[in-house]
Design goal:
Elements lengths: L1 H68 L1 H6 L17 H23 L4 H19 L5 H9 L5 H32 L28 H22 L6 H26 L12 H7 L9 H37 L7
Helix pairs in contact: 3-4, 3-6, 4-8, 5-6, 5-7, 5-10, 6-9, 7-8, 7-10, 9-10
């Protein structure tokens, strides 16, 4: 009887031990199963996310291809970062460097214009070549609202970036004017030069040329001179964008465009208009704004100010900006006809 009880106790103990061991082994299996399910779900989620991204990329590619397939949509397609706006543009410090580049570049160009005048286009080509090479990496080397507005109209740059560039260009032109004017006044104060015999070059209003041309007004003639010159500058800049992988080629193309526009204006004003001693063109609204559109005093109050300012705005701001937009679209149209992609 004792032996039987011992055997029964042993069997029951063995059963309990086996049950415990089974329970112990079953727990890690359950944990592993849960982990496996979690991992599987995570993998499925990741796959779904990848598939969603791939679908979005495919949709964007289809959208871009559809825009490129239609010539009108291609002209107006967004070529800059669509997420760039007034809330996001200052998150990247590169915009600060770009603004500084536009200020410094326009300042140098304004200094060259004020010291050498506009009847030395050969000097302008070297000035633009050097400044464009120096500032191209920073801002793209616009230095001119003609170019910036053309880039905005063809959606190569965002509106907020374009506005910041134009403000920077006006500030740069103003600083350049202050520097040159400071040196000029120092020379006058020293007595080494006489202001009456050697005045600082000024931008002559088209309507003021009438006194030297027997009463005939060259208003629309000078306006068209600015307009055609702006088209040339914008067209060359847009074509230079196609070679932007080489900074020198880009700068040389832009400088040659400036030289061509200036040479055209010099020949027309000298040979056809008979105007040799006055700056009647400038082809840069930022410099024009500081150079000739801000009178220190005007007779006749507000009416006198508006009557003097409006013709200058039409000649040196409105039509040059319009010419810049036409120049960029003309370049895009030529690219489309030649089967080339539009340059950004």
């Amino acid at each position: 009887m004792a032996t039987t009880k011992a055997k029964t106790a042993k069997k029951s103990g063995a059963k309990k031990t086996s049950a415990k061991s089974k329970a112990a082994t079953s727990k890690p299996k359950t944990v592993k199963a849960v982990e496996a399910k979690t991992t599987k779900k995570a993998k499925v989620t990741m796959v779904e996310k990848v598939e969603e991204k791939a679908e979005k990329v495919a949709e964007e590619k289809v959208k871009v291809m559809s825009e490129k397939s239609h010539p009108v949509k291609e002209f107006f397609a967004c070529k800059h970062d669509p997420s760039e706006n007034i809330l996001t543009i200052f998150k990247d410090t590169k915009i600060i460097g770009a603004i500084i580049g536009e200020i410094v570049g326009t300042c140098v160009i304004a200094g060259v214009v004020l010291t050498l005048g506009l009847f030395n286009p050969l000097y302008m080509i070297f000035a633009y070549l050097g400044v464009t090479l120096a500032m191209y990496v920073l801002s793209g080397a616009h230095f001119n609202p003609i170019v910036t507005v053309g880039m905005m109209a063809t959606r190569r740059v965002s509106v907020i970036r374009g506005v910041l560039y134009i403000v920077a260009q006006v500030i740069g032109a103003w600083v350049g004017f202050l520097i040159v004017n400071g040196f000029y006044n120092a020379g006058v104060a020293s007595g080494n030069i006489v202001a009456e015999t050697m005045p600082l070059p000024t931008l002559t209003a088209a309507s003021d040329i009438a006194a030297a041309t027997e009463g005939f007004s060259f208003f629309w003639a000078v306006t068209m001179l600015e307009f055609v010159g702006a088209i040339i500058i914008a067209f060359f800049f847009a074509r230079a964008l196609a070679y932007k992988r080489s900074a020198f080629t880009f700068a040389a193309t832009v400088a040659c465009g400036i030289f061509t526009a200036m040479l055209f204006a010099v020949v027309i004003s000298n040979s056809f208009f008979g105007v040799r001693d006055q700056n009647i063109f400038i082809m840069n609204p930022a410099i024009s704004f500081i150079y000739g559109l801000l009178p220190t005093s005007v007779e006749g109050g507000f009416d006198g100010l508006m009557s003097a300012l409006m013709p200058m705005l039409v000649t040196y701001v409105i039509f040059p900006v319009l010419g810049g937009v036409i120049g960029f679209y003309l370049s895009d149209f030529a690219s489309k006809l030649s089967g080339k992609e539009l340059a950004n």
